[in-house]
Design goal:
The chain is mainly α. The chain has one domain. 62% of the residues lie in helices and 2% in strands. It has 15 helices and 4 strands. Helix 6 crosses helix 12 and helix 14 runs antiparallel to helix 15. This is YeeE/YedE family protein. It comes from Rossellomorea vietnamensis.
Length: 416
């Protein structure tokens, strides 16, 4: 039985645990396959082949996220509220596998389609600190992080469409304001544990592995002291059928996500990211209404071409579409796709959470994927700092969630 993280139903209280697998929604599965195939063929004939490969990787990422209910928002909340660190330890496994795979790729710069592989190594300053803290608050109010928002939409969770809409708005406003935060306020240059410290990639890998082991040990010590409730389990098929039916173990998903991120790095030259596409989508819409987005400092230099090109030429956009479709296929194959009711308080929380995440992600040079996962995997100091500040934002959000009717785990709860 797999450990179960449930970011899709976070906005509600614990639900009754299912004891049986649902029947596959075959018509929805067929529809998802057709849409994915059509999009893949369109990319194959209109874009570089790498875009089609990235769509496949996005499908696999979304499929994995949904089947394991692999949460970042819920993992942070549970460790901060009651001391349950099961999901955080899965994060450490994911990061350990990622740095092991990233080290040789970044050291050699090798990619599948030419160009050089480069990680996400970003500055450390006021922008990062404020942005990561805001994101930590936002993901607890919005009901999911960047990846959680996408795969919850793929699963049909209605309120997350509101979160995504305002995520895009926040990211667009953040793009407009970014030059102020990065140029007018104090900031240090990007710091890589591998290339800025003299450790090299092997030394940085050793330091990273020791840190991940330390975090895992700390979570175990906290659990021993607080004796928090364990996460509930869900039924799952046996053998190879488990790939399509039922929940996946968190650790297995952590390994798969790390491998897929490494493949993404070798395909497009950068790790997996999500929120830069939100800024692109929002800026294109703003431009349609007469806003001179091209004059923003964010869209100068290397970013200028993306603003003028089709969104299907943007690799992050393609990955995002893949994640949504992959999660849709996973939910439908498990018979779990359904829209649910939106309450007024949930909608307000999603608006605020989406705005904070979008704005915070741009200030912090990424979200839980681009900054936390991709940054740490790239040996960037900013990734570690992002994680600490997002945890701090989560702690504050624990006191804000009840104002919107959102649950907060308590010591006697059973996690569903």
């Amino acid at each position: 039985m797999a450990e179960y993280v449930q970011p899709i139903n976070e906005q509600k209280g614990p639900e009754k645990k299912s004891t049986e697998l649902n029947s596959p929604q075959t018509s929805l599965v067929a529809s998802g396959i057709i849409v994915s195939a059509v999009l893949g063929l369109y990319l194959l004939f209109t874009q570089e082949i790498a875009q089609t490969v990235l769509l496949v990787l996005g499908l696999l990422l979304g499929y994995t996220l949904f089947h394991a209910r692999f949460g970042f928002t819920s993992a942070f909340r549970r460790v901060m509220s009651v001391g349950n660190g099961q999901a955080m330890r899965a994060h450490m496994v994911m990061l350990a596998v990622a740095v092991t795979l990233f080290a040789p790729i970044l050291a050699t710069g090798y990619t599948f389609f030419g160009g050089e592989a480069t990680g996400y190594v970003s500055p450390v300053g006021v922008s990062l600190i404020v942005g990561a803290f805001l994101f930590g608050i936002g993901m607890q109010l919005g009901g999911g992080c960047a990846s959680g928002t996408l795969y919850a939409i793929g699963g049909g969770r209605s309120v997350m469409f509101i979160t995504l809409l305002f995520f895009i708005v926040g990211a667009t406003v953040g793009a407009a304001h970014l030059p102020f935060w990065t140029e007018e306020l104090p900031s240090f240059k990007p710091i890589s544990l591998a290339t800025s410290t003299g450790l090299g990639y092997f030394g940085a890998w050793v330091v990273s592995m020791l840190f991940f082991a330390f975090v895992a040990w700390v979570t175990l010590r906290i659990e021993k002291k607080k004796n928090p409730p364990r996460m509930a389990v869900l039924p799952s098929a046996k053998g190879w059928k488990r790939i399509f039916r039922g929940s996946w173990p968190l650790i297995a998903a952590a390994i798969v996500l790390a491998v897929l991120n490494a493949l993404t790095l070798m395909t497009r030259g950068n790790p997996w990211g999500i929120t830069s596409a939100f800024a692109l989508w929002g800026s294109k819409v703003a431009g349609m209404f007469g806003v001179d987005v091209a004059s923003w400092g964010y869209w100068s230099g290397a970013n200028a071409e993306a603003l003028q090109a089709s969104i299907f030429a943007d690799s992050t956009t393609v990955l995002n579409f893949g994640v949504i479709l992959g999660a849709f296929l996973a939910s439908a194959s498990g018979g779990l796709f359904r829209f649910n009711k939106i309450t007024g308080k949930n909608a307000i929380a999603s608006v605020i959470g989406g705005l904070l995440m979008g704005y915070g992600a741009r200030l912090a040079f990424g979200c839980n994927i681009g900054a936390y996962f991709g940054g740490i995997a790239s040996f960037s100091l900013h990734g570690y700092i992002w994680g600490v500040l997002a945890l701090a934002g989560t702690f504050l959000a624990l006191y804000l969630r009840p104002l919107f009717g959102l649950s907060v785990p308590k010591p006697k709860d059973t996690f569903c």
